[in-house]
Amino acid sequence: MTDQNALASARYIFTTGRMIHDHVQRITTGACMQEGKDNRFGELSAQQMNMIMMVRVREAVSVTELAALLGVSPPSVSTMVERLVERGLLTRTPSNRDRRKVVIRVSPEAIEDIARVEAIILGSFVELVEALGAETAQKWCEVLEKIKAVLDKK
Q1: Which Pfam families does this one have (predicted)?
Q2: Which of 38, 35, 41 is nearest to 53 (CA)?
Q3: 112 contacts: CB under 8 Å, gap ≥ 6
């Protein structure tokens, strides 16, 4: 592949990836709004919801790990986590392995609410997969497996 082809491919992948990211953000925001302003999700920022989903996927994470995943400073993560703890969405507990460290988890009370938001997001992807068709969706999964393998090595 020439440098020009690689650049064009990289640009296309980046742009399309951005479209997918933006789509997920819109769906997530809509799902949170659907849950209503009177509950834990009312008026959450996209970054706060992203943080909750990252914690949910990993089950337990330190402030430092979460900061690295989000690409922000640990003090910023601490502030966001504190707000989400106050809303009953996350918990902070001392680590069993190292009492100096704090472990962040989704609060037991919020798990069901978050599962409803995830169901809405996944429903959107089911619609996308159905619109693509089984063969194209399978190819997409194969490409994503290869991307995941490359990224896991980094």
Answers
A1: MarR
A2: 41
A3: none
DSSP-assigned letter for residue 107? -
Q: List the Cα angle 148/151/153 in 5-degree steps.
A: 115
Question: Across the 154 residues of the chain, what is the mean pLDDT of every consecutive 10-residue run?
Answer: 82 91 80 60 75 89 90 90 90 81 89 83 89 93 92 84
Element (H or E) spanning 63, and its range? helix 63-70
Pair 16, 37: CB distance under 8 Å: no
Q: Which CATH number covers residue 114?
A: 1.10.10.10
DSSP 42: T
Which pLDDT score, from 0 to 100, does residue 70 have?
87
How many independent structural domains does the chain possess? Answer: 1
Residue 117 has φ and ψ, to the nearest 5°, of -65, -45
Which string of b and e fits 48-70 if b means at least 16 CB within 10 Å?
Answer: bbbbbbebbeeeebbbebbbebe
Residue 102 forms beta bridges with which residues? 94
Token duo for residue 72? 């922000």
Distance CA(88)–CA(40), nearest Å, equals 7
Single-letter residue type at 35: E
